[in-house]
Amino acid sequence: MEYRLLGNVEAVANGTVKLPGARVRTLLAVLLLDHGQTVPIGRTVDALWDTHPPHTAIRQVQHCVSLLRKTLTAAGARTRVSTHTSGYRLDLADDDSIDAVEFDRLVQRARDRAAHPGDALAAWQAALALWRGPALADVVNTPLAPRAEFYNQQRVVATEEHLACLVNLDRYAEAIAGLTSLCLAEPLRERPVELLIQALRGVGRRIEALDHYQRFSTRLADELGIDPSDRLQNLHRELLRGTMRAPVTPSISDIAPRTPTPTPAELPANLAGFTGRAETMRQLRKFTDSRGAIMVITGTGGIGKTSVAVRLGHELADQFTDGRLYLDLRTHSPCEPMTPMAALARVMRSLGATLGPGDTDVDELAGRYRTLVHDKRLLIVLDDVADYTQVLPLLPGASGSLVIVTSRNDLPRLTGRADAVSVPLGPLDRDDAVAMLRGFLDDGRAADTVNLDLLAHLCTDQPMALRLTGERLRRRPRLRLSDAVTTMAGSGMLDWLSLPGDPGVRGALDASYQALPSRLRTVWRRLAVSPLRWHGADTTAAATGLSIGDSQGALEALEAKHLLGYVEDKGHRLDRLALAYAVERSAIEDPPSIRETVATALLTRYVDRIDAAYQMLSPEFPPIRTRVNPALHFSDKPSAMTWLHRESDNLGACIEYAAIHEPTRCWPLVIGMTNWWVARGDRDQWRDYLDLALDAARAVGDRHGQWRLHHGLGLAHHLRGCFAPSRAHLRKSVALAEQLGHADDSLWTLSILSELEIENSRHVDARNTLDRAIGLLPSDGRRPRLEATLYRNLGNLLLRTGAPEEAIAPLRRANTILSGIGAAVCRSYVEIALGEVGEALDDPVDAGRHYRQALRLLDDFHDHALRARAHVRMAAHTIKHDTAEEAVPHLAWLLSHLDSASAATAAEARRLIDDFPGGEPALLAWRPKRT
User: Terminus of the chain with fewer CB atoms < 10 Å: N or C?
Assistant: First the structure.
């Protein structure tokens, strides 16, 4: 399949493939431009709608992706469009091609063959022949415009170089028409004017050449207020004198050193205290096995990129006999960053070339540089690079040399080259971080492993922070490590991580921060003052007011600059050092109310969203609020539970913030997480958050919140097997509900209370509670789970009070109610109770049937406490009525999940395990049979 971007966007396979609509065509362009990389969904939405995408945008993107896949498949393409967590990715098949990629390849070939003008000319002509009009001509909108403009400018440069080749080959007549058109299209571009003057002079049209110069000079003065360059003015003077020589392509002898030059050995001194990075160094060495490579080492400021690059350079120095060059491009230095022109001149002087005052054209000088180093084996370290444009002129054209680049920014255009590899640097391993700190100490403190580990953690295992901490400790031999830990854990951390004459971590972060565009600075500060632990596009949009697409783009840009970390299924976050610096900047640049403004926006979003999740997961429970925004609804229970799991860290952070600053929003967040805590969460943390929210509700007199929280605490203590506190909280919840006029809403509380009383043999209390609850049941049957639970509890009560035959009717009634709504978990409780009835009535066949049904219903359920109850019943049943071997799978499962079972279930399971022949060893050795 041939894909075309240099003109209208097309796919060609035995003729042009008809793409179904403008949005599918735009989607194809977006994916092709970043083929081989995942394109975030936010960027795709922005590209397809430009501004104001509809609320169904993501669904429409999914539809467009489906249409694109079908279209390509029908055309016989083997191109793969895959779906990923954050977006979509297009991978080319071996026989696929993209004209823009082919254009780049031909341009590079033309530049590599600059010393052979005939070959270069053929490559330029082939590159230009790929163009059919302006790039992305039929899909250009605001987000794609910069990409289109980039390729259009590359076309201008290629046209210029092609015409320069013709002039250098004395083919003046062929060049004049093209140069005239290029001067009209780019009236302020100087080089086409220079080439046109040379070509006109070459065919004897001196007067026209002078006229072109005069018109260009006048235009520059009128529109920009500047004069032509010295080079063009000199050309004009030669033209006036009639002494202008035809241009000659410089030969290697023109730029070769005239006097012997020492072999460059510019690498800085190797770092004596270099620690760790064994795996990184092994990975980097692996890429030196093949000739010709570019290594890009990326990471945040202070992470040790330069140390790694210099260390590797010294290890490999003997392999590069023609020299080792080192260039600091000063992107984050107090000095001015080095321009590509200055960098080229510096490198060429190191190699012995002599440059004249007229050598001011970067492209021309880059070609001369590639000629100079064509047959050499050089090691070139380019430190502190800003972007691709700084590096490109310094890349040798032939294999044999190694270029090591360090940058705080990801450089995808550079690492996209076939011979380039990216190695991101993260924090040190903890053992290496502790070893680095210990290397500064020569006293008894070196043995204090606990506090050294804490200090390494507080330094986020970052080499610069570790070095500064170690240096402080070395200078203060009487400073206890525990005191250093206290300082690092407090607000003076960034002051600690600096020394006289060394701004330290604050200085490194400040350099990165000041290099950001204003919009990204603002986003970074907003993330820092938010209460959240992880950030996604949606939360960033709420915190900043940006669109989802712009927020996603900002997060990716900050991640690419290594100012945000990213963890799959969690999101983006600032590490501890970056967070401290960004909070400092916010205190300087933002109004004092900004933290409250950001937090309120995020709390509003989370309260709304968790309300929707709660009403999806607990439709029969009293809602947190009566109405939920339809746009926030979840499609099903798994998606609601998945959202709670993914956002659990952020929800916990919001709970802690709201308890202090917005107490009335605290309890909805805690209650909204009930289903997650019951099924998957840390129940100790659940109880702590319930207590925290209850204190907050009491502090502001929120009786509605107190009612809901007493219910939650009653349930939490019940699941932990704590009878007294559970009953006290449940009774308090019922009393508050009645005082608030919500007696009907206390039905679930009464249901849990009755179950608690049954389990603890408070049979009279349980009967009174059940009679009261059943009397409050609505007559419309709209709360089937609640009704079934109450009748199941009644059946359990009758069973435990010696009336198993009477228990059958309410249990079957509960089962009938639940069978119609597919409530597998609720039904499993009833099936266990019916199995116990079968046992009591001496009907082992019926009992076994119900136990097996309960296990089938719980097969995919993640609440191990309930599954343990079913396995215990089934294990006891098979031991009593069948054979011990049939109990093995159930006992083996119980042995692995004892910690998840209730106290009573765990005690019975332990008794069964201990009585089993062979005990635990036999069960541990058991393996399920393969089917």
Answer: C
SS (H, E, C) 1-14: CEEECCCCCEEECC
pLDDT at position 898? 83
Handedness of CA 559, 562, 564, 570 (dihedral sign): positive
Contact in structure between 762 and 796 (CB atoms under 8 Å): no
Which of these three, 424, 445, 472, is where a domain ends?
Answer: 424
Residues of the chain with pLDDT under 70: 50-51, 140-142, 243-261, 271-273, 289-292, 335, 356-359, 417-419, 681, 862-863, 926-931
User: Is the four-CA dihedral 610, 612, 618, 620 of positive or negative sign?
Assistant: positive
Strand (E) or helix (H) holding 89: strand 87-91
* Per-residue model confidence (pLDDT) at position 140: 65
Q: Is the pTM of this model over 0.90?
A: no
| Pair of tokens at residue 78 | 């083997």
C-alpha pair distances (Å), 138 with each of 148, 226, 373, 779, 911: 11, 37, 43, 63, 75
The neighbour count for residue 442, using CB atoms within 10 Å, is 10
3-state helix, strand, coil in the chain (%, to 5): 60, 5, 30
The pLDDT assigned to 585 comes to 92
Does the residue 592 lie in any domain?
A: no
Write the CB contacts of 11 (distance below 8 Å, at least 6 apart in sequence). 1, 2, 3, 4, 17, 19, 28, 71, 72, 75, 77
Per the DSSP assignment, residues forming a β-bridge with 325 are 380
β pairing state of 87-91 and 80-83: antiparallel
Residues 413 and 443 in one domain: no
Is 873 a domain residue?
yes
Are 436 and 273 spatial neighbours (Cβ–Cβ below 8 Å)? Answer: yes
Q: What pLDDT does residue 401 have? A: 87
**Could you tell me if 666 and 692 are in contact, meaning their C-beta atoms sit under 8 angstroms apart?**
yes
User: 315: domain range?
Assistant: 278-424
